[in-house]
Write a structure and sequence with these properties.
The protein is of the alpha/beta class. The chain is built from 15 helices and twelve strands. The chain has three domains: 174 residues, P-loop containing nucleotide triphosphate hydrolases (Rossmann fold, 3-Layer(aba) Sandwich); 67 residues, Orthogonal Bundle (DNA polymerase, domain 1), CATH 1.10.150.300; 64 residues, Roll (Ubiquitin-like (UB roll)), CATH 3.10.20. Bound molecules: guanosine-5'-triphosphate and magnesium ion.
């Protein structure tokens, strides 16, 4: 699973990226034109507690890949224009985080010369929407030609789907807000459409404005056309500095600053939310591990995430929920209490389930 941090130049993407990856700020790397990737461990208190109880040789957190993409700059004519390299960088991600600048800092000029988060969000939204529209217009023409030449129904069925998308985009609405059924989504899945990608917005706030943050975010929400987007405030500069401290100092400083939840936790939580993800656990003497799956995954789908063989040779899943395990502290006691169950392949896994897959 990949999240891309995208935005205009100097919005704080690399600072946020380094905070997420707990990495030192490297000036030379920050100037690079290509995207940088880092695999990030998803912190999970439940996994920590299970690890304490099982004392395994290894603890393995779920991971998420974060891409830091170079921002859009002002070109020679004084305008900010979308480039193909930028679009390609954005396309490669499963979900996007717009990193939007709200902080003032005269030593790093905003590429549009003023601080205006709404304008920046609308700029990205409209550029991505136009890129999708341009793509579809070329695609539709080719699709119609090819559909005439072949007996393959698949191409013919795609024509109305593409037309439906074009009509929506022409109303200046992102594809995220278009109702699409499963077969339509499947037909579009290979296209890496920018405005269809699940989206979160991270507002990089001025550290001087911590007290006013709720009203700043409220104002941005009110002015956005798509009200369903999750917006989170963060403070790149302070939070980067905090991320270099140990946990105790970090908690202390966060409360001094009035920061309730770290940027890392907020971003990862929002990603799980917008992507419809959840976790299950496997436990044992060798390893305690958290796995990331989609919300509607069955026991068999989840077994497949561990190993393809587990999917193919699935027999049953032993299921205990984390909360029950914490109450009874052993599988035997969970069994006695009726909190340990055998489930078949159709069982829909719940966030926090501890699974043991029986396979042939
Ligand atoms: N005062 C202040 N400065 C910040 C903040 N966030 C980032 N900066 C500074 O702004 C400059 C640019 O930050 P980066 O994180 O490199 O921005 P970026 O979005 O990665 O920039 P590009 O990759 O060029 O698009 C750095 O000097 C940061 O220290 C902030 O919240 N407050
Ligand atoms: Mg950068």
């Amino acid at each position: 699973m990949q999240i891309g941090l995208v935005g205009l130049q100097y919005s704080g993407k690399t600072t946020l990226f380094n905070t997420l990856a707990v990495k030192e700020f490297d000036e030379a790397a920050a100037m690079k034109e290509e995207a940088t990737i880092e695999v990030i461990k998803v912190p999970d208190e439940r996994l920590d507690k299970l690890t304490e109880l099982f004392n395994p040789k290894k603890k393995v957190n779920a991971t998420i890949e974060v891409y830091d993409t170079p921002g859009l700059r002002m070109s020679d004519d004084g305008k900010v224009k979308i480039t193909n390299t930028f679009l390609q960088n954005v396309k490669d991600n499963d979900s996007l985080f717009y990193v939007i600048r709200q902080f003032e800092n005269d030593s790093v000029p905003h590429p549009m010369n003023s601080i205006n988060p709404i304008r920046d969000i609308n700029f990205l939204e409209s550029e991505f929407l136009l890129a999708d529209l341009a793509f579809f217009e070329v695609r539709l023409e080719k699709l119609k030609k090819d559909a005439q030449k072949t007996k393959d129904d698949k191409l013919k069925r795609e024509v109305p789907i593409v037309e439906k998308c074009i009509a929506h985009l022409e109303e200046e609405k992102p594809l995220r807000t278009l109702e699409l059924d499963e077969s339509e989504l499947k037909a579009l899945s290979g296209y890496q459409l920018l405005s269809l990608k699940p989206l979160g917005i991270a507002i990089n706030c001025d550290e001087g404005a911590i007290g006013e943050i709720d009203s700043i975010i409220e104002k941005i929400k009110n002015e956005l056309l798509d009200k369903t987007i999750t917006i989170i405030p963060f403070y790149a500069k302070i939070e980067y500095e905090l991320s270099t401290l140990d946990e105790e100092e970090m908690t202390e400083f966060m409360s001094d600053y009035g920061i309730k939840e770290s940027a890392q936790s907020k971003i990862l939580r929002t990603c799980y939310e917008v992507l419809g993800l959840q976790s299950f656990f496997t436990v044992g003497e060798d390893e305690c591990r958290a796995w990331t799956i989609k919300k509607n995954y069955t026991a068999q789908d989840s077994a497949g995430v561990i190993h393809t063989d587990f999917y193919n040779k699935f027999i049953r899943a032993e299921v205990t929920h984390y909360d029950d395990y914490m109450e009874h502290k052993s599988f035997a006691k969970c069994k006695e209490a009726g909190a340990w169950r055998l489930e078949g392949k159709e069982y829909v896994v719940v966030d926090g389930d501890i699974l043991n897959i029986r396979h042939s």
